[in-house]
From TrEMBL:
GO molecular function: ubiquitin protein ligase activity
Gene Ontology biological process terms from the UniProt entry: proteasome-mediated ubiquitin-dependent protein catabolic process
Keyword Repeat: yes
Alphabetical UniProt keywords: Repeat, WD repeat
Protein known as: Will die slowly-like protein
Domain of life: Eukaryota
């Protein structure tokens, strides 16, 4: 540009008017050409943006249309169910009543309201069943709740039911975004013919499954303590493990105080004086890290300890039945096989998982790993399947008929995995010191869901499950409850200082 200016200035004295006009026309033409190209480029950019925006809106419109179609179909199915329930209530046949002639003659003199009472009873019962069905109250039985002095849902008056229903609506609104995501995730899985969504008839059970999830999640509004038990006089003697027996009748607690205490659950809950004592108190030679009940022999209990021992006990008489001493370092976890009732697994800081038979004195299988083993669990429905959690941030899932390599490796955690727990035959959860719990399916290596909310960066805070509910501790001195299908905590309980029994 500078050279052109210098050339024009040096030669301008020789230009006549005609040459200057020609030069100006050429420059003007070039200017218009450049302006046209610039305008074209600007319009092209605008066109690209609008085209992309249009395509995006079309995709969203298509997605919204598909989702709207699914919602309309589910609404129609729901309305059909509600009409069927309503008709069942109105037209439900009354029970056939046999009346003896002699009694009939007596009753003709004095009107008897038993028939109308029976009809009213049937109608009330049907309405109650419908209410329980619609609100999800039939998900869990109320027998235990009544035993503990609480009200069953059938015992609530209509005002209380309406108030309860409004509370459930508020909870649903609070978690609406979570359920919306869960709803459409299930729709997507249904499109790919996900076997886990099928019902017993082989058809898609997505609708019923989501309704169950919705009602179970809003069913509970708070946690309340039933009792507090004193494991040891010194509060620094932490409890490492709490487990119920196969019938949920007795539970055992154990920890660093070198004691195992067995309690009767019903007695502890019903005791109004706050003076519950263990039915058995077993002294141990080492600190206990984990315990597990046998699923068949009611009195059989397995423990792992800080010395690397795995011990099988008769819990009710406090006698050792087997002592296994092959681990070289602290043993963190022990678990009974639910199907082969004589098979026991243990995991240790010596980076091995060992399998034991209660009929033998030596281990029957040893699985070697590259890091400390924090937790071991058998699949509750598959005898040959075992999962263990490791300090190398991974969960290993083995078929014990082929121990050369794991069947599948779950490796999405960022820190050591402290617990692994099966929810059912195909799903398990793992807890890590990255403050996350992850849900896995044994048929894929990627996690299904990640639960966040609790704090776990250093300690073993505990992990347990009951069907679709997951419970864990937290380093903020709280208990967190998650529901399997929702990644946010369902309930939280913060522990205050209260007197131990």
């Amino acid at each position: 540009m500078k050279n052109i200016q210098e050339m024009i200035l040096s030669e301008c004295d020789d230009f006549d008017l005609k040459e200057i006009d020609l030069m100006m026309k050429l420059l003007q033409k070039k200017k218009h050409q450049l302006e046209k190209e610039l305008c074209l480029r600007r319009n092209q950019l605008m066109q690209d943006f609008l085209t992309n925006a249009k395509s995006k809106i079309h995709r969203e419109q298509k997605l919204l249309a598909e989702r709207l179609e699914i919602i309309e179909k589910d609404l129609n199915d729901l309305h059909e169910q509600m009409r069927a329930e309503k008709n069942r209530i109105i037209y439900e046949p009354m029970q056939k009543i046999e009346i003896e002639p002699e009694k009939f003659e007596k009753n003709t003199k004095k009107p008897d309201s038993s028939l109308s009472s029976l009809f009213n009873h049937n109608l009330t019962k049907s309405k109650t069943d419908l209410t329980k069905n619609l609100l999800g109250f039939d998900t869990f039985g109320t027998e235990r709740q009544q035993q503990q002095g609480g009200k069953s849902y059938a015992q609530h008056n209509p005002f209380e039911l309406n108030e309860l229903f409004e509370m459930q609506r508020k909870k649903l609104n609070l978690y609406y975004d979570c359920f919306e995501k869960h709803y459409f995730d299930q729709c997507k899985r249904e499109q790919f013919n996900d076997e886990s969504l099928k019902n017993v008839h082989g058809k898609s059970g997505r609708f019923d499954r989501f309704k169950k999830d919705l009602n179970q999640f809003v069913l509970y509004s708070q946690l309340r303590p039933l009792a507090s038990l004193n494991y040891a006089k010194d509060s620094s003697n932490i409890v490492s493990s709490i487990e119920f027996d196969k019938d949920m009748e007795f539970f055992a607690i154990a920890g660093v105080a070198k004691k195992i205490k067995i309690f009767d659950y019903a007695g502890v809950v019903k005791d109004s004086l706050g003076l519950s004592y263990p039915i058995n108190d077993i002294d141990c030679s080492s600190k206990i890290s984990c315990l597990c009940w046998n699923s068949y022999y009611k009195a059989m209990l397995a423990t792992s300890d800080y010395e690397g021992n795995v011990i099988i006990w008769d819990a009710f008489i406090g006698q050792k039945l087997n002592v296994f001493q092959e681990h070289q370092k602290r043993c963190w976890s022990v678990d009974f096989n639910k199907i082969d009732i004589n098979l026991v697994a243990s995991g240790s800081d010596d980076t091995t998982v060992k399998l034991w038979s209660t009929n033998m004195n030596m281990s029957v299988i040893t699985l070697n790993s590259s890091a400390n083993i924090c937790s071991v669990k058998f699949n509750p429905k598959q005898m040959h399947s075992l999962a263990f959690a490791s300090a190398d941030h991974c969960v290993y899932y083995y078929d014990l008929r082929n121990t050369k390599k794991p069947l599948i490796l779950f490796n999405e955690h960022r820190k050591a995995v402290s617990y692994v727990e099966f929810l059912n035959e195909n799903e398990l959860v793992s807890a890590s010191t990255d403050s996350q719990i992850k849900l896995w399916n044994t048929n894929q290596s990627t996690s299904i869901l990640t639960y966040r909310g609790h704090v776990n960066e250093k300690n073993f805070v505990g992990l347990t499950s009951n069907n679709d509910f997951i419970a864990c501790g937290s380093e903020n001195n709280s208990l967190y409850i998650y529901y399997k299908s929702i990644d946010k905590q369902m309930l939280t309980y913060s522990f205050d200082k209260w007197v131990c029994i």
